[in-house]
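Discussion board: Methods & Data

I've been asked by a reviewer to show the raw model output for two of the constructs in my manuscript, not just the figures. I'm not sure how much to include, so I'm pasting the format here to get opinions. Each protein appears as its amino acid sequence followed by a line of discrete structure tokens. Is this the kind of thing reviewers expect to see in a supplement, or should I convert it first? Here is construct A:
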Amino acid sequence: MKSLCVIGSLNMDLVTSVKYFPKPGETIFGESFKTFPGGKGANQAVALGRLGAEVLMVGKVGNDIYGTKYLEVLRNNNVKQDGVLIEEGISSGVAIIQVSSEGENNIVVVSGANDKVDCNYIESKWSLIEEADIFLFQLEIPVNTVINTMKKLKERGKIIILDPAPAAKLPDEIFKYIDYITPNETEIETLVEKKIDNDEDLREAAQVLFDKGVEVVIAKLGSKGASIIKEDEYLNIPGFKVDTVDTTAAGDSFNAGFAFALAEGRSLEECVEFGNAVGAISTTALGAQEAMPTLEKVNEFISKRD
């Protein structure tokens, strides 16, 4: 099995459960408050660790209680933390999350130490980084760091997966380094600056990304599953029905499941199905990482549908 490396963010999620999201100027009473480890990068790393992958996390936390806690979380979830530094004089990243009674969420992120993951830091960890085969990126560390790191990895023939989240318009250069890009509907609309209303719109949006250099688009479509889009192929892989509690890390979990299956050498269709399963299971408990499954649980989950 190929080894994996996640280069990205580590946040502590401060989660409030509410009946509904307050309107501007409105004060409501929340139903509960909990603290969970999160951040798109670390979510993907922890999900991979739970599945049993060999995975290295690269990023930074602050010199505070959240940073210390996160190193413990990584260690307890089979994630190598040699690539994570405690940055002095700054807070760890935090995400303030509201989750409604319907399982929807909104999120405010304070980047903290994640903003200090610069190219010099990547260079200082390069001997560890280049040992991996498959790399997962997101957009919660500086984009310049992401682009320059991808470029170096591409020159060495590594496999690169980008989860373009949070949604952002990106420089054209980044796309020529990407093997697999995994946007949801909002993110692909942002990337191509076009509204997506149907499959034809999605194909046209994917073509824009192909023209810029992307190899494969994996479009995450929520309850509808995910679509594999290549220049000459469009295939939808159905999702799984579950009782949703919290969708906070569904996309991160999908990416971890997809990358794990890819590392095992499965077909692209099997990789996306596996990603759909991991993503679905992850929504069945409150908190980004609480319901992330083991390999045994995912295989059992998929077999029940078969």
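Construct B, same format:
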Amino acid sequence: MSEGGGPEGVGVLVGEDGLARCPWAAEPGEMRDYHDTEWGVPVVGESALFERLTLEAFQSGLSWATILRKRPAFREVFDGFDVDRIASYDGAKRDALLADARIVRNRAKVDATITNARATVALRGAGPEGSLESLIRASAPVPGPAPVTTTDLVPSSPESLALSKLLKKRGFSFVGPTTLYALWEALGLVDTHLAGCHRRGIAALTAGTDT
């Protein structure tokens, strides 16, 4: 998700609990909970990574808070983001997804999810990448300095542009450079917790954790 946003030049904010956080997570609620427990924490496994890629694509043009509220329904209707099951969806299943008001009923994004599942299956063992998971991890940029304020945040990078082009060649869709950069942030492959945030560096502490 493109969490970093809001007014430029804003640094960490200290909450009523005394903890410093990125400004988008300053207030109690779902967004703070996500910031404090999930954002920037590595995940292990194809389904977990595919879920995050899919939700980042669905978030495009919407708020992440909307996606978080709908996430339980997304997990249900997309069969726990089991890639093989999604890859086998037929027209009837696609129509059912588009009729389900509990999720984002965007035809292009639903179609992209099915397309991307099939591309993920095809990617297994094909070429040096071997899997979607290894490709996404190997393509992440070298860590840079910690952003101090929201002005220091960027929506994409040359590396995310290169990965976008590679994935599109492999048959993926809705994988633009901004979506992929946000995915790296969510996975802790790019740490954009602001300097001073109590979650800064959490990816290194939780590397290898199966979440």
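Answer (T.O., handling editor elsewhere):
This is acceptable in a supplement if you add a one-line summary per construct. For B, something like: Residues 13-206 form a domain with the Endonuclease III; domain 1 fold (CATH 1.10.340.30).
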